[in-house]
Amino acid sequence: MAMKDLAGKTAVVTGAASGIGLAMTEAFLREGAKVVMADVEEEALSREATRVQRAGGDVLAVLTDVTDPTQVESLRDQALGQYGAVHVVCNNAGVAPAGPMLATTARDWKWCVDVNVLGVGYGVITFAPLMVEQGEGHIVNTASEAGLVTAQFLGLYCATKHAVVGLSESLYRELEPQGIGVSVLCPNLVNTQIFYSERNRPHGSELSAIENATLTPLRESIKAGGIAPTQVAGNVVDAIKTGTFWIFTHDVTLPSALRRFEDLQAGRNPTNPYAR
Description:
Blueprint (H helix, E strand, L loop, with lengths): L9 E5 L4 H12 L3 E6 L2 H13 L4 E5 L5 H15 L4 E4 L14 H29 L3 E5 L12 H21 L5 E6 L22 H17 L3 H14 L3 E3 L4 H14 L10
Parallel strand pairs: 1-2, 1-4, 2-3, 4-5, 5-6, 6-7
């Protein structure tokens, strides 16, 4: 359902201290909303929350590890304690490991699934019942173009982002009859620090040689051609206001995603989604 006016509403954003999450925070504030900023990086969260407060933004900073359901519940409780209601939830926190799947470890899988999949799931089961009860709300889950299109050496990341797309589609079907909006954000390259996620990896931030070899060109591509997070945040605000499910940031996303179905119809094995 469309939420045409965000003025006076309360939004909760995870991963809010940088990148797309910070841009969404600032976009919601410009719309007249109040924002609960959640992030696992304490120093960055404190710095950015202080900055936007000094600029006149009404925000509450809550240190939150989305892999811990009790901390997500505390995030909800603090949001309600401060503002009395939650109208928008952006399950945005995410990590992006890269490298050959056969070089990944069980610890890599647990970390990535815990953040990218369970972090979204915990946000849904914690906040969606509240929205149903109050009869109003919109959930935005951050996936990626990698939730629709696969790439070599991003298998672990693609697996988790495909999960977010599937979760979000099912959630849309469940909540649409109850008047609660759901969107899934599937950005292509955005100029953020997503490919520096190892800084928050619980089993160590040092990259292996093969991880470094994979991540270096990805980082360079983002620096050279990534769009601004503010553009993505604008797409998110528009989707909430219009009740749009799919949020794409690049024209290449839809034709690339459709390549899978073209392969299915032609009886082909998977082909390069970007080859035309």
